[in-house]
Write a structure and sequence with these properties.
This protein has 437 residues and is an alpha/beta fold. It has twelve helices and 24 strands. It has helices at 23-35, 49-60, 95-106, 126-135, 168-178, 196-203, 239-251, 270-277, 322-331, 351-361, 393-405, 425-432, and strands spanning 5-8, 14-18, 37-43, 65-68, 71-77, 89-90, 111-115, 138-140, 148-151, 160-162, 184-189, 208-212, 218-223, 232-234, 256-263, 281-290, 293-301, 309-310, 333-338, 365-369, 372-378, 386-387, 410-412, 435-436. The structure holds shikimate-3-phosphate. The site of shikimate-3-phosphate has 11 residues, from helix 5.
Length: 437
């Protein structure tokens, strides 16, 4: 059932808070933990519906997942040690869980049915099935969308693959499958995508090299027949969740907040870089390394923003932050042109269309030109609209954030999907001074 929620124009936000664990790292910790030998202990795991779907899938494939002293433990089965599930694996709303798990199942002599909710069943799986079938995964039937039955093999072949789309999910699925194949599996990406799988594989003891080229492209090579050793993983705060708090503080006059322990991996930092270009008052405090990933406390103060051009090559490093950036652009002075957004069309919803429609509903002038979004900033936003979220958690949170800084309250038609990535979104925002009803 749909759960509408309204964000009320709010006074200043003030205070310090953490955010839940990073979603990308949480999925990877569960899946690689299942493929390691021994126990992997994960602290700060994101306990949201998407990650719980992956935890259930990992358990259904034979790796026991338990909670112990505030952390989550995965009893690894070793590379190649997963079992056939006795029921379909239901990934809910999660594209990341689905695509990474295709890579894990590929190297096992098992059959598994993958399914999910209406949004996930519309999303393209051909991008991950194409390289994995070259390696030896079989699909039953011709479909390239869920529900789908796949059959893995112990005789997977290594491949050399140029990613046709800049997708960390596709890269990660191939890397995970590549661990099960003999020899070297090579992946080239023309734009660097998030590198958590590479970092975590190295941390678990896999043999892997990553080379950056002068033109910004990257080559990643994983050596097959890998052995992973269970490890302790501390999951840092999710920058894609922090983005909503940061944005709210920028547009509610007089705000000053600190978001603690946020992942600042350069492959995820495009949003902060863009905000700086817009003139935002943002500081990274106490930079440190936690569990092999860079982390900072981020201090934000409200202030004037100006429109900017966001180049297409920045897309992978802020792909999930575009809806909230577009909302912020309405509060800036001048036009913001965001280029190269084709991948936004295949997220939990068509985010390019949903963002443009949401902006129009809130009185912000915006237009889509091919794969670009142009937002006309007027220094303030009227609000007052009803925004259609299309089963998309980030569309819901982006427009609730906009409502906090607008002149009139903004209602989203369904806030229930927020539980997929940031269940305590409204609670944390309220603690800082935001108002919802
Ligand atoms: C993710 C990669 C991105 C991102 C998604 C999480 C990941 O998708 O949008 O929310 O954890 O690898 P693509 O890799 O398909 O762009």
């Amino acid at each position: 059932m749909k759960q509408p929620l309204t964000a009320v124009p709010s006074a200043r936000l003030f205070g310090r808070t953490g955010v839940p664990g990073d979603k990308s790292i949480s999925h990877r910790a569960l899946i690689l933990g299942a493929l390691a030998t021994g126990v992997t202990r994960i602290s700060g795991l994101l306990e949201a519906a998407d990650v719980m779907a992956t935890a259930n899938a990992v358990a259904a494939l034979g790796a026991e997942v338990t909670k112990s002293n505030g952390a989550v433990e995965v009893k690894g089965q070793g590379v190649g040690g997963l079992h056939a599930p006795s029921a379909p694996l239901d990934f809910g709303n999660s594209g990341t869980g689905t695509r990474l798990m295709f890579g894990a199942v590929a190297g096992h002599d098992i059959e598994a049915e993958f399914t999910g909710d209406a949004s996930l069943c519309r999303r393209p799986m051909g991008r991950v099935l194409a390289p994995l079938t070259t390696m030896g995964l079989q699909t039953v039937g011709e479909r390239a969308t869920l529900p789908l039955v796949v059959r893995g093999t112990r005789d997977l072949l290594p491949i050399s693959y140029d990613l046709p789309v800049p997708s960390a999910q596709v890269k990660s699925a191939i890397l995970i499958a590549g661990m099960h194949a003999p020899g070297r599996t090579t992946i080239r990406e023309s734009l660097p995508t998030r590198d958590h799988t590479e970092r975590m594989l190295g941390f678990f003891g896999a043999e892997l090299t990553a080379e950056e080229h002068d033109d910004g492209a990257r080559t990643v090579i994983i050596c097959g027949d890998a052995e992973l050793q269970g490890a302790e993983i501390a999951v840092p705060g999710d920058p894609s969740s922090a983005a909503f708090l940061i944005a709210a503080a920028l547009i509610c006059p007089g705000s000053e907040i600190v978001v603690e322990g946020v992942l600042t991996n350069p492959t995820r930092s495009g949003f902060i870089a863009t905000l700086r270009e817009m003139g935002a008052d943002i500081e990274e405090l106490d930079r440190r390394l936690e569990g092999g990933e860079p982390v900072s406390d981020i201090r934000v103060r409200a202030g004037a923003l100006k429109g900017v051009n966001v180049p297409p090559e920045r897309a992978p490093s802020m792909i999930d932050e575009y809806p909230v950036l577009a909302c912020l652009a309405g509060f800036a002075e001048g036009e913001t042109r965001v280029e190269g957004l084709s991948e936004l069309k295949v997220k939990e919803s068509d985010r390019l269309a949903a963002t443009a429609a949401g902006l129009a509903a809130c009185g912000v002038e915006a237009r889509v030109e091919r794969d670009d979004l142009i937002v006309v900033g007027r220094g303030e936003v009227k609000g007052g609209g009803l925004v259609a979220t299309h089963m998309d958690h980030r569309i819901a949170m982006a427009f609730l954030t906009l409502g906090l800084g607008a002149r009139e309250a903004v209602t989203v038609d369904d806030a229930s999907m927020i539980a997929t990535s940031f269940p305590n979104f409204a609670k944390l925002m309220t603690k800082l001074g935001a108002e919802f009803r």
